[in-house]
Amino acid sequence: MVDEKDTHDMYLYPEYSIIKDDEKCTKCKKCIEQCSFGVFDHNSVKDKIIINKSKCVACHRCISVCPVEALGIKKSELDFRQNSRWEEEYIKDIYKQAKSGSALLSGMGCDKQSIDYFKRIVLNASQVTNPSIDPLREPMELKTYIGRKPDKLDIEKDNDNYKLDTQIPPQLELEIPIMFAAMSFGSISYSAHISLARAAKESGIYYNTGEGGLHEDLYDYGDNTIVQVASGRFGVHKDYLEAGEGIEIKIGQGAKPGIGGHLTGEKISEEVSRTRMIPQETDALSPAPHHDIYSIEDLRQLIYALKETTEYNKPVGVKIAAVHNSSPISSGIVRAGADFVVIDGSGGGTGAAPKTIRDNVGIPTPLAIASVDERLREEGIRQKTSLIASGGIRSSSDAIKAIALGADAVYIGTAALVAMGCRICQQCHTGKCSWGIATQNPELTDRLNPEIGSKRLVNMLRAWSLEFKEVLGGMGINAIESLKGNRDQLRGINLNKVDLEVLGIKSAGEAW
Amino acid sequence: MKLRPERSRGSCGIAGIMNKKKERFSGEKILNSISVMQDRSNGLGGGFSAYGIYPDYQDQYAFHIIYENEKNKRIVENHLSKDYNIAKGEAIPTREPKKSVSSPPILWRYFLDPVKSNSSEKNEEDFIVETVMEINRNVDGAFIVSSGKNMGIFKGVGFPKDIGRFYQIDKYEGHIWIAHGRFPTNTTGWWGGAHPLGILDWSIAHNGEISSYGTNRRFLLNYGYHCTLSTDSEIIAYLFDLLGRKHGLDIHTISNVLASPFWNDLKRLNSKARRLNKAIRITYSGALLNGPFSLIVGQQDRMVGLGDRLKLRPLVAGEDGDMLYMSSEESGIREVCPKPDSIWSPKAGNPVIGYVGE
User: Fold this and answer.
1) What residue of B is the nearest CA neighbor of A512?
2) Among chain B residues, CA nearest to A379
3) Which numeric CATH code is attached to A144-507?
4) What DSSP character marks residue A113?
5) SS (H, E, C) A206-274
6) Torsion angles phi and psi, residue A24, rounded to 5
């Protein structure tokens, strides 16, 4: 009789090979203990380490823990017959679907080169007519305020006394124009969450709770917290809304525009269950739309319900996925009362998304930010809101470019996880994260020490802020706000005319 | 004449002289002051603004306009005659141009009042700004150089001393004079692009390059200002108009917007002042001028000098009796006032303010 399972597996070849140096290996079995994907085993009869390479996802955990550096991972050498259209990925995806009959799932964001506009933008520097500024000698300001700004100030002057008659709406104060993007407790571990919270506090920025509520231990970090309200409304209550400094309504996400979320029952541990206010081990389903928001006027009602609840003391923002119509939608969102708008472009990460959505739906962050900023200015409502770029920001230079295109600040999600050890192996949806980040398995979550996790995040933010200062100084700019929307400082490389027009930048080689 | 060249930026010399008692004096003085700093310009732009020079027409708006040819002139005059009562229109008197003054365009001035019925629904000054913006944006080959009352801007391509002689500024008398000698870093010479730049009775002479140009221009777009002049200094004139005239901020507050104190410096202020300055910075972050600059701004009743937050461009001020002097270099002051009562270098970001009637 034919074993159907074996037959199916026959079509797929392992993606990675494990290279083991038997001379170095002491059979300490650390790799067996640490690999959460089950690659390693031990045959006690032959006293041999057995390797099941088909299970390897290239998470590097084994290599990192091997005390004698006996291990290596290599992409399997298997060439398909050359074909420019039938690339390997298409073929393998069909093999997987033919086996499972399921839509393909993946973790992290779109991994396709085609969406990468940041790489095709270069920055400017001063020469002669405008001195560059040395950030080691001169002040260089990165402080940023997120929230609605008045169009003008009314200041009464009585002799030399000034009286401010304009009330400044609530603002989020950032020491550097970066925040940690929404990643829920549930999709990531408690250790990861508290690392983010501590790092946000130490660096003078904010982290976002994501849609999974706020663990009771983390209320202490409220001054550096943005609480999220998403379609599942997990863990949303008055104390939660009041716990943070800002509130974000999540409509959509760049990794999966138009799609809800599904956290499987295995991840609903006791702690997650209590925080989310749902029974343990039941699936946590976030509907694709909010079931009380079927129109822009419904969104307005939710924005003002949240403002009323928190007595207009906190900025309330709205996050949407970057799609074709983002700019008119954003205009509506601002008019509906949002104090900040988050545009999450393709490239943005996720714990789990249908692969075909992740890779094919939505538009790249730089194009979305440029068109939204332009639209809000044309309509004269840009002052009424802050614009946050999110999705696929990997470096200080990506962030700087997003700000020069028009964002007030950026969100980073994946980059923060990488600082904590994530290898972008795209297995978040399996719950097996061997680095203790995207999992609720206590054995695995213990691997991330929040003290070290937060320290590494703080270091990364410090490094980025030093890089910001170098880049700004080179342009002869000493305050980040003078870069905001300053597209003159950008030039495009290998972009077509329409791309350049949408981005509102000139081509490299064109002068002022 | 190429009318709309690429945007130019550059380095320059500036000077300003005012009499606080509003006593008028000849343009000869400012001409001598700016001429001694000839090294700071390269013959590609010079200009002067003068206040109090048209006492006979002090209630009318004075438009100085440059035209490429007679056709542009007819278009603009047709346009103006619909919305304005023109009390007088005449050629701006000039002398035979010196060598550095290249191909002068047609230079005309008008003294006019808006027709009330056309402007009644709007603030009169907004109406003037709209006219200036519309003509400068839409009529190729015509350019409104200045549009204030009892003031005018005289500028063009050439060394400032040659431009001054060409316009016969020694024959005018005013109580505030501001001068500019230009050293642009590209070679296009365009008469409209010379300084000072003006809107209503604001005039600005600017030495510097604005690294925040893109941000400032987009900020101004929020408030309906369209930059047309192909020089980054234009935004300064519009920022003064927005902040000073439309938002009613005083000159100290405006200088706190344009050259904001550093966040760290705010920590030293009392809580009320800190709150005010924080509000200013948060609200007007898009108006912060970054990059090196020193500038002199004039209005009918005041002259203000301001430098950037790091003092990357020079500015010297001096006082002698009722006279206030400002200049890129001390020589510009000593040339016309060898022994002033006081002479000093203003601190970075701190304005020097002279009021008429002080």
Assistant:
1) B7
2) B222
3) 3.20.20.70
4) G
5) CEECCCCCCCHHHHHHHHHEEEEECCCCCCCCHHHHHHCCEEEEECCCCCCCCCCEEECHHHCCHHHHH
6) -80, -35
Work out the average pLDDT over A131-140: 92
B12 is catalytic: yes
Given a contact cutoff of 8 angstroms between Cβ atoms, the answer to whether A205 and A180 are in contact is yes
By DSSP bridging, strand A246-250 and strand A225-229 are parallel
pLDDT of B23 strictly over 90: yes
What residues of chain A, 403 to 462, have a C-beta less than 8 Å from chain B? 404, 406
The complex's ipTM works out to 0.87
**H and E: helices and strands count for chain A:** 16, 23
Domain of B147, in residue numbers: 11-355
Residue reference for tokens 């597209």: A487
* Any domain includes B37: yes
Distance of alpha carbon A112 from alpha carbon A115, whole angstroms = 6
Residue B123 lies in a domain: yes
Nearest to B245 by CA among A488, A152, A325, A372: A152
CB atoms B286 and A476 under 8 Å:
no
pLDDT at B186: 54
The three-state DSSP-derived secondary structure of chain B is CCCCCCCECEEEEEEEEEECCCCCEECHHHHHHHHCCHHHCCCCCEEEEEECCCHHHCCCEEEEEEECCHHHHHHHHHHHHHHEEEEEEEECCCCCCCCCCCCCCEEEEEEEEECHHHHCCCCHHHHHHHHHHHHHHHCCCEEEEECCECEEEEEECCCHHHHHHHCCHHHCEECEEEEEEEEECCCCCCHHHCCCEEECCEEEEEEECCCCHHHHHHHHHCCCCCCCCCECCHHHHHHHHHHHHHCCCCHHHHHHHHCCCCHHHHCCCCHHHHHHHHHHHHHCHHHCCCCCEEEEEEECCEEEEEECCCCCCCCEEEEECCEEEEECCHHHHHCCCCCCCEEECCCCCCCEEEECCC
Number of domains into which chain B is organized: 1
- The predicted model scores a pTM of 0.92
Please state, for a pLDDT cut of 70, what percent of chain A lies above it.
Answer: 99
What is the reported pLDDT for A101?
Answer: 95
Assign domain A4-102 to a CATH class.
Answer: alpha beta
| Nearest CB to A129; choose among B10, B260, B286 | B10
C-alpha dist (Å) from residue A33 to A40, A227, A421, A449: 8, 37, 18, 18
* Residue B169 belongs to domain with CATH number: 3.60.20.10
Neighbours of A52 (CB within 10 A): 14
B5 belongs to a structural domain: no
Contact state of B10 with A150 under an 8 Å Cβ cutoff: no
Rounded distance, CA A22 to CA A383, Å? 64
